[in-house]
Amino acid sequence: EEYENNLDVYRSPAYAKYLYLDIDKNDLVKNIKITDEQAMKIYNLNIEEGLYIKPVTYKINHILIDSEISAKEALEELKEGLDFEEVSIKHSTDTETLESKGYLGEFMLTDLPDYLSSEIINLEKNEISKIIQSSKGYHIISILEKTDDTISSFEDLKDTIIKDYKKETGTRKYFDLIDEISE
């Protein structure tokens, strides 16, 4: 009641002034300019550093078997000309191998356990490995395809180089601007 009867006493002129800067890093990034020559210079520097090299990859057939006797039978059948699909369906005790019908996938050597990668490095395309024993069982592998290590071309990487340059340069400008405003 006191408040209601004395509103003029409790009222004061409200005044607020807000000053702020709205800085969007993305605005800085999109306004960064880079020429093809600058992008090529970045590409060449990174090539010298060993970047942009696509490593060797292997497409691999694989059978995993629990029993050494069954692994020897499977190896004999592969050497006699049966294909991995048939032999994996007949002998594999691994559900993943069964589902993929013997195709393991495409890998770099560093993606694989040592017991497989050390054997793969010595195999030629379509050559059948010896039986490889591990804690998981007995493995038989074969290389379906092998890619050579290659250097990605400037044209393949140009858009990525430009995008990365703009992002990096824009981010630096953004933080420099923030520091400057703070000072």
Topology:
Layout: H1 2-5, H2 7-10, H3 25-30, H4 36-48, E1 53-54, E2 58-65, H5 68-79, H6 84-91, H7 95-100, E3 103-107, H8 114-120, E4 132-134, E5 137-146, E6 150-151, H9 154-182
Antiparallel strand pairs: 1-6, 2-3, 2-5, 4-5
Helix pairs in contact: 4-9, 5-6
Overview in brief:
The protein is α+β, with helices and mostly antiparallel strands. It has helices spanning 2-5, 7-10, 25-30, 36-48, 68-79, 84-91, 95-100, 114-120, 154-182, and strands at 53-54, 58-65, 103-107, 132-134, 137-146, 150-151.
Give the key terms.
single chain, 183 residues, alpha+beta, 4-stranded antiparallel β-sheet, two-stranded antiparallel ribbon, 6 strands, 49% helix
Structure, explained:
The chain is α+β, with helices and mostly antiparallel strands. The protein is 49% helix and 16% strand. The protein is built from nine helices and six strands, in the order ααααββαααβαβββα. It has helices at residues 2-5, 7-10, 25-30, 36-48, 68-79, 84-91, 95-100, 114-120, 154-182, and strands at residues 53-54, 58-65, 103-107, 132-134, 137-146, 150-151. It has a four-stranded antiparallel β-sheet, with helices on both faces. Strands 1-6 form a two-stranded antiparallel sheet. β4 and β5 (137-146) form a beta hairpin. α4 crosses α9 and α5 (68-79) packs antiparallel against α6 (84-91). The longest helix is centred in the last third of the chain and has 29 residues, at 154-182. It is elongated, with a radius of gyration of 32 Å. The two termini are 51 Å apart.
- Stretches where pLDDT is under 50 for at least 5 consecutive residues are none
Helix content: 40-55%
Mean pLDDT: 89
The oligomeric state is single chain
**Radius of gyration using CA atoms only:** 32 Å
Beta-strand residue fraction: 15-25%
Specify the number of helices.
Answer: 9
Helix and strand content put the structural class at alpha+beta
Order of strands, main sheet, comes to: 3-2-5-4
| Topology pattern, helix = H, strand = E | HHHHEEHHHEHEEEH
Q: What's the number of extended β-strand segments?
A: 6
| Overall form | elongated
Major pleated sheet: 4 strands, antiparallel
The CA-CA distance between the termini, in Å, is 51 Å
